[in-house]
Structure formats: structure tokens, C-alpha cells
Design brief:
Length: 745
């Protein structure tokens, strides 16, 4: 019932997108349809993330139909400078839907002889660059393929420089929204807002539009008609009253990337409450809401400081604590984590949306994905933080798990986004839901205290703070904090596709007293890539008198585990608490070789180990299917005993196969290895029974005169150390044993 409501709402929303797409080409003021979307707080996170993804894709389609190809890779000239600071001075005319003004950029040349600056800016036919200057001088520039090339007067050798671009026009919508002129309320009031992720800041302001080049600070000076209020990043320093217009001067003093610079302007009603920081200060949490939505906002938003407290306690202090956290209503049907000022739908009142966008302030804004390949470092983290909030806010472990279970993702593709030139790919549900599951699984692998130590270490890593990160940066933190090699984990889950399908079976038998051995067979039966996942898998065994959970570190596709328990088994569950994104299937127990490891063998010493098989119908027939046993050892085909005297030092890999007498016959194979190591020997202990006695004399005589076996090893028989074994050794040994002669040399 709830689901169908959601689908209906989504259909309506997509329809509206196409309507907007058609109407946006006409530059007239027209009331756009308002959509009441998902006021249902019970929408599952997966439904939410899927809708976010689909809405984003619908937007992108609009852009694609406009035939706009975006430069999303750093150009060579862009790699030659570092943007340090931007000042946006923009006038927004809601009647003409024209923005006009300038962007000032202060930057630093990273090479010698630098003189060409390249900025990203849509060469949209409705946008005009009036001039480009530096220090009052007009500069020559070109503008094509969405790049402004600016030729500086002079060469810069690792030196700072600045440019200012004057422009005006009607920004085209792109990406999820980019720049939007909307209306709300009755009578309707303009709402002018932005949403630039992933690379659509360049739709409305010229900049080096790459996540990894954060400006150290930004000034955002926005002029609107005097009855509108502008919300933006950082702190509001000044409101200048120009009569019919007002200029709002916002300053973001923390590093910020271009896609997080935002403005939202309308007749906001404002209210606030306070977050008490870890050090005992206070920070304002401010809400900019549509007046017609004030009472609803007042009923839910005040929970925000508790959420900030939750995340500050778990990860580290709110990163922008000397400014504010804000939420501002805007036109889009979702929400966007603009730094210190999340933009949020006026009709979407869900606690976990607030939690998600707030969590982005740590994961996304404070530490930003280096490029869009690693978007899961933003979205997976923020989605996971929804569950952490549920757990923290009274839901406990069961609330946490049921929330995570609502975010299971079963589709294909990798979390690492290969193709980011197609922006459709960037915001698939996979980066939200499966990305969150990566953290959930990691938590179980390393344990709770280590997991949160990892998140705190990631937060406080000075090379990442207020900067950018790639998956490998996070992996490094995980490995250094946990002391574990986690490469297998990140390879499988970030770069691999799908998930493991575990098929398990078990049997048990008494071993005396009230003890039982449980033989567990685990198969990975997925046909997707990776064909086998390396994961620690919880196995919960319940007997009539006890309950135990063992962790099977499962690596191969087929594996056997043996666990000893008290009392007969009543049930066995694989990963009962769902710590792995997986499917499980139970099966009946077949024939399985349960010997998984064989002891190493000392060279020249007698060796005998019995391979054990369970299930099937005996008697069994054994054989070495491939590889080689150590020289000197043999496998008995009827008993499964590996025995003999190994002679060659080496590691021997081999696969044994067992066949039963069932009808039809059943078989199992097992990969095994035996390491033959150099054994110490006692000279004179010719028969290698650990004592020197008459048995050794007999053994030696037997060897010398009756064709008996060699001493083990041969050197043990050279009792007098003269390099040969002959009668003198027999005499030497008898003298030692019975006539108080010297011991073997
Ligand atoms: Zn997000």
C-alpha cells in the first residue's frame, strides 16, 4: 500500500520533469506545478535512494537532450593552477530570470611561465560573458566547448594571480537541477535556488569545477528584490539595503568545493535552535522555511542538534562549528548537502533525510570524494549514518539492523563508478545502499570499537581534513587502525559486483560423553564476479543445551568446517544477524572430505595421517586426483591413510578425491598440502624411535647384512662420524651401550 503510493508519486514526478523540460525553454514567468511528494515517513531508505537516483537521472536526460557535453576532466591548463578563493557578486532578477555580475578568482600558478587560465562555464546561448579582467586590465579570452580560456598579461612562476569574469544571462538547468527559478505558496512567491552536484556549478558561475580543487574560502554576495531573503554557505556578514533590492553577503571561511556553493532565496520564515558543542560552546542551527510550511518544519527540524551531537560524538566535532548548520527549503524533490546549509524539499519531512544530509557535512563536505568515481565515500557514508542515527536515537541494535536490512542492494555493477562522463552512472542506488552495506560489513569484520576508531581516525587524518579522499585513502586508515589486511574486502565490494550466495549443509555425530562434532559444508554458488568472496561468516549453532556462534573465515568456493559442541544440534544458521550482503540456501549434507589441513612432516621420519570423509555411503575409494604427495608418502585407496617416510624437503600441493559406493556414486575433492621440513636427528637413533638402545644395533646389523631399510636419516647410522656406515659403527654403538664407551659423536 505504501509502496504503491510511492510509485504513483514517482510517476507523477517524472511526468513533471518532462513538463518542466518543455517549459524551461520558454523564458516566461509561469507558475510551475508544485508536487506533494512523499510526506510518508515510512518510505524505506531504499525507496528513497532509488527515487533520488531516478529523479537525478530524469534531470540528466533533459540535459542530454539539449546536447550539452560537459568537460568533467581536469584540463592541462587547469592542472597548472590551484584555485584558492572565489567571490561571487551576482544579481538575481526573478522577473527576467537573468543573473548578472561577476566571479572573482584568486589562484596560484603551480608551474613556471603560467599564463593561460581555464575555467569551466557552459557556453549556453542564453549566457553572455561581458569582459574578463585582472587588476583592472582587460584580458583576452575565448569561450568554447564550455571552457573559458583567459590569457593573462604576463607570466607567473609559482605565483598568485587573479581574474574576474563579468557575465549575465539565463542559466540552463543541468544535472540534478543546477539553477532553478521556481515559485511556492499562494499567492506565489519566487524561490531561486541551486543544486550544482555533480558538475553543474559551471552552469551558473565560472569556476574550476572539480571536486578536488577546494577553495580555501568563498564570499557569496547575492542581490535580490528586497522582499526575498538569501540563504547560503557559512555566515551572513552583512545585509545591504539598496532600496528595491537587498544584497546578502555570505562568507564561507572553511575550504569548500564548487558543487557545494549554493544559494536559495525566497520569503523565508526563519527559526533556530542551538547545538552545544563538545567543548561547551553553542552553535546556531538555523532553518529557512517556506512560511506556509513553518508549523510542519517547527515540529520536526528541532531534532537536528541531537543529530549533530550524535555524529560529533561518533566521528569528531561538527566540522564547521564556527559557522552554523542550516536547512533551507528549495524546489527540488529531494535534499542536497550544501556546506553548512543543506537545501531540502519543503514537502519531504523525514527524519532520516535530515540525518543523511547532516552526515554529509562530515562525509562529502568536510572530506569530499576526490572525483566522482569514489562517490560512495559521500553517499554510502551518509546513508550508513541514517542507520547510526536510528541506533543512537533509541533504536539500538535491532533498530540499526532492521534499518540496514531495508537498504539491501541486489543489483549488478560496481560501487566504484567506472564511467563518470555519463553522469547517469554517478548516482545509482548502488552507491547509497550497497555503499552503506560496505561500512556495515566492515563494522562486523573489525569489531565495533575498532570500527568507530577507524571513523574517528578518518575524520582526524590531517591529509584528508577539509580536503578530498579516494577509496584507497579510506582503506589505508582502516588497515592502519585495525592492523588487518583489508585489500580483499575493498577489492570484492568496491570494485567487484554482486554478492555471495552461500549454500550450506551440516551433519553431526557423537564423539563420546555428550560431545558432538558438527561437520559444516559451505559452498559459494554465485556465478557472478567475484566468483568467490573472502569473508568472515558467522555460523550460529544451537544444541539442546547450548548456543554458540563461530566465525568461519571463508575464502574458497567450497569449504568444510568442524565444530565440537555439547549435546545434539537443534539448528544451525548462517550469518543470522545479517552482517553480510548475501543470500543463503540450506541443502542436505552430501559427501565431504572434512580434513582441511594436514600436519607438516619432518624429513626422514615416519608419517601417518588419516583423511576423514563424512556423508555418502561407505566404503570409500581414495585417490590423488592432481598434484603430488611428498616423495616417500602414499595414499591408501581404501583407508584414506597418508603414510610413509618423506625424503624431499619442499611444500607439496595436491588434490585428493573420494568416491563412495552409493548408487549413483558420489564424490568429493579437497585441496591439501604437506610441508616437509628438515628434522633434527639423533646420531645412533638409527630407527628414529627417539631412544638409543639394542633396537638400533639390530636395525644397523639388519641394514648392513640382511638388506634391511636404511637408517632414518642415513646420517643417524654413521655413529662414529667417519662418513661411512660399516661394522665399526656397530662396534662403536655396542661399546657406548654396554662398555661405557664414548657417546655417538
Ligand atoms: Zn546524499
Amino acid at each position: 500500500m505504501k509502496r504503491s503510493v510511492s510509485i504513483w508519486a514517482l510517476g507523477l514526478f517524472l511526468f513533471c520533469f518532462s513538463f518542466w523540460a518543455q517549459s524551461s525553454s520558454a523564458q516566461k514567468v509561469e507558475e510551475k506545478p508544485q508536487v506533494e511528494l512523499l510526506t510518508d515517513q515510512n518510505t524505506t531508505p531504499t525507496q528513497f535512494h532509488r527515487m533520488m537516483a531516478e529523479m537525478k537521472q530524469a534531470r540528466l536526460k533533459v540535459l542530454r537532450e539539449m546536447g550539452i557535453a560537459l568537460p568533467i576532466k581536469e584540463t592541462l591548463a587547469q592542472s597548472h593552477y590551484d584555485a584558492k578563493y572565489y567571490r561571487l557578486d551576482l544579481n538575481l532578477n526573478d522577473t527576467t530570470e537573468i543573473i548578472s555580475g561577476s566571479i572573482y578568482m584568486y589562484a596560484e600558478a603551480l608551474i613556471s611561465g603560467f599564463n593561460v587560465v581555464e575555467l569551466n562555464f557552459f557556453d549556453n546561448p542564453q549566457m553572455y560573458i561581458d569582459s574578463v579582467k585582472s587588476g583592472g586590465d582587460l584580458l583576452y579570452f575565448t569561450w568554447s566547448d564550455n571552457i573559458i580560456r583567459i590569457f593573462l598579461n604576463g607570466l607567473y612562476d609559482h605565483e598568485p594571480f587573479d581574474v574576474i569574469v563579468y557575465y549575465h544571462g539565463h542559466p540552463l538547468e543541468g544535472g540534478l537541477q543546477s539553477f532553478d527559478w521556481g515559485y511556492h505558496g499562494s499567492p506565489s512567491v519566487p524561490i531561486i535556488c541551486t543544486l550544482s552536484e555533480p558538475y553543474f556549478a559551471q552552469a551558473w558561475w565560472p569556476c574550476k569545477d572539480l571536486p578536488r580543487d577546494k577553495a580555501d574560502s568563498v564570499d557569496i554576495n547575492i542581490t535580490v528584490r528586497s522582499d526575498l531573503y538569501v540563504a547560503s554557505n557559512g555566515l551572513l556578514r552583512e545585509i545591504v539595503d539598496n532600496g528595491s533590492t537587498k544584497t546578502y553577503k555570505w562568507h564561507e571561511k572553511y575550504p569548500i568545493t564548487t558543487y557545494l556553493v549554493s544559494i536559495a532565496a525566497t520569503n523565508y520564515s526563519m527559526f533556530s535552535n542551538w547545538y552545544h558543542t563538545l567543548s561547551g560552546d553553542s552553535m546556531e542551527v538555523k532553518y529557512y522555511v517556506y512560511p506556509e510550511r513553518l508549523s510542519q518544519a517547527q515540529s520536526l527540524y528541532p531534532i537536528t542538534p541531537s543529530m549533530i551531537e550524535c555524529y560529533a560524538n561518533l566521528f569528531g566535532e561538527y566540522p564547521f562549528v564556527e559557522e552554523k548548520y542550516g536547512m533551507a527549503h528549495f524546489t527540488w524533490g529531494g535534499a542536497m548537502e550544501h556546506q553548512t546549509c543543506t537545501s531540502i524539499s519543503s514537502s519531504w519531512y523525514s527524519e532520516w533525510v535530515i540525518a543523511h544530509e547532516l552526515a554529509h557535512q562530515w562525509w562529502g563536505d568536510y572530506i569530499t570524494c576526490h572525483n566522482w568515481h569514489h562517490i560512495w565515500l559521500n553517499e554510502g557514508f551518509a546513508s550508513y549514518c541514517e542507520a547510526l542515527w536510528v541506533e543512537y536515537n533509541g533504536g539500538g541494535s535491532s533498530g540499526y539492523h532492521s534499518y540496514m536490512n531495508g537498504m539491501q542492494f541486489w543489483g549488478g555493477g560496481s560501487i566504484f563508478i567506472e564511467d563518470t562522463t555519463n553522469a547517469w552512472n554517478i548516482f545509482g542506488t548502488i552507491v547509497y545502499d550497497k555503499g552503506a552495506w560496505v561500512l556495515h560489513m566492515l563494522r562486523h569484520i573489525v569489531g565495533d570499537s575498532t570500527f568507530f576508531a577507524i571513523l574517528r581516525a578518518y575524520y582526524s587524518d590531517s591529509s584528508l581534513a577539509y580536503g578530498v579522499a579516494q577509496t584507497e585513502d579510506f582503506q589505508n586508515v582502516c588497515e592502519s587502525v585495525s592492523g588487518m589486511d583489508l585489500d580483499y574486502f575493498f577489492q570484492e565490494w568496491i570494485y567487484g559486483t554482486y554478492y555471495p550466495k552461500y549454500q550450506y549443509s551440516y551433519m553431526y555425530e557423537p564423539v563420546g560423553g555428550n560431545l558432538y562434532d558438527v561437520f559444516i559444508h559451505l559452498d559459494q554458488i554465485q556465478t557472478t564476479d567475484p566468483t568467490h568472496f573472502t569473508m568472515p561468516v558467522d555460523i550460529k549453532i544451537t544444541t539442546s543445551s547450548m548456543e554458540t556462534t563461530v566465525v568461519a573465515f571463508n575464502d574458497p568456493r567450497h569449504e568444510d568446517f568442524t565444530v565440537r559442541v555439547v549435546s545434539p544440534v537443534t539448528s544451525l544458521n548462517l550469518d543470522p544477524d545479517k552482517w553480510i550482503l548475501r543470500k543463503t540456501y540450506s541443502a542436505s549434507y552430501g559427501i565431504n572430505i572434512v580434513t582441511t589441513d594436514l600436519p607438516s612432516a619432518p624429513q626422514f621420519a615416519p608419517y601417518a595421517e588419516t583423511l576423514v570423509v563424512k556423508g555418502g555411503t561407505g566404503p570409500y575409494r581414495w585417490e590423488v586426483e592432481s598434484g603430488n604427495l611428498p616423495d616417500g608418502l602414499e595414499l591408501d585407496s581404501s583407508t584414506g591413510i597418508v603414510s610413509g617416510i618423506p625424503t624431499v624437503l619442499d611444500s607439496f600441493d595436491f588434490t585428493v578425491k573420494v568416491t563412495d559406493l552409493g548408487s549413483p556414486t558420489d564424490t568429493d575433492t579437497q585441496q591439501l598440502f604437506i610441508l616437509v621440513y628438515e628434522s633434527s636427528f639423533v646420531r645412533g637413533d638409527v630407527n628414529h624411535d627417539s631412544v638409543i638402545d639394542v633396537g638400533d644395533v639390530v636395525y644397523l646389523i639388519n641394514y648392513l647384512y640382511e638388506g634391511g631399510p636404511e637408517p632414518v636419516p642415513w646420517e643417524a647410522g654413521d655413529v662414529n662420524c667417519d662418513g661411512t656406515i660399516d661394522l665399526s659403527d656397530v662396534v662403536y654403538l655396542i661399546n657406548y651401550l654396554y662398555r661405557e664407551g664414548p657417546p655417538p659423536c
